[in-house]
């Protein structure tokens, strides 16, 4: 039996589905990402992992940390590709200031929710989020189970 793969929307490169399970998302921003040529080619092939990535705001700049973009085997031999390098996020000043204040609050963090294409540019969806505790995760699981049961009951009629 084959495992069912999650189908992404047409412009979407990758989605951080684990983040929805781990955090309450409060506010979302769209940011550009400063990438190198080999990274863009690897993103076209879907060779990226956002699972442990987060956004750090320092000195009035936002940085994407922990995003793993695996290089293609065809990347140039004279260039050393660093898969987990820190990448700069391109936001306007007001968004950066708002994000810096929000991340300074206890329990809040900024995470990357998704990478996607917007025309010919690669954009990152950044979210200000607050971590869930185990009780909240159990409550979400109960709600998901109840929704599934309701669907089964409705299909049976």
From TrEMBL:
Principal subcellular localization: cytoplasm
Cellular localization per UniProt: Cytoplasm
Any single GO BP term: trans-translation-dependent protein tagging
Keyword Ligase: no
Biased composition (Basic and acidic residues): 132-150
Coiled-coil annotated residue ranges, if any: none
InterPro entries found in the cross-reference section: SmpB, SsrA-bd_prot, SsrA-bd_prot_CS
Alphabetic keyword roster: Cytoplasm, RNA-binding
Region (Disordered): 132-157
Pfam families: SmpB
Top-level taxonomic group: Bacteria
GO molecular function: RNA binding
Cell division recorded as keyword: no
One GO cellular component term: cytosol
PROSITE patterns in UniProt: SSRP (PS01317)
Family stated for the protein in its record: Belongs to the SmpB family.
Purpose: Required for rescue of stalled ribosomes mediated by trans-translation. Binds to transfer-messenger RNA (tmRNA), required for stable association of tmRNA with ribosomes. tmRNA and SmpB together mimic tRNA shape, replacing the anticodon stem-loop with SmpB. tmRNA is encoded by the ssrA gene; the 2 termini fold to resemble tRNA(Ala) and it encodes a 'tag peptide', a short internal open reading frame. During trans-translation Ala-aminoacylated tmRNA acts like a tRNA, entering the A-site of stalled ribosomes, displacing the stalled mRNA.
The name this protein goes by in its record: SsrA-binding protein
Record organism: Gammaproteobacteria bacterium LSUCC0057
């Amino acid at each position: 039996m084959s495992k069912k793969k999650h189908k992404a929307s047409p412009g979407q490169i990758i989605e951080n589905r684990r983040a929805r399970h781990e955090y309450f998302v409060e506010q979302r921003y769209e940011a550009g990402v400063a990438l190198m040529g080999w990274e863009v080619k690897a993103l076209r092939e879907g060779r990226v992992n956002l699972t442990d990535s987060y956004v750090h705001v320092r000195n009035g700049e936002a940085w994407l940390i922990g995003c793993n973009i695996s290089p293609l085997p065809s990347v140039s031999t004279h260039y050393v590709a660093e898969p987990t390098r820190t990448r700069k996020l391109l936001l306007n000043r007001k968004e950066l200031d708002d994000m810096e204040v929000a991340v300074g609050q206890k329990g809040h963090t900024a995470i990357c929710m998704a990478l996607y294409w917007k025309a010919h540019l690669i954009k990152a969806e950044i979210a200000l989020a607050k971590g869930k505790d185990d009780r909240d995760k159990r409550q979400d699981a109960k709600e998901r189970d109840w929704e599934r049961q309701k669907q089964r009951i409705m299909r049976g009629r």
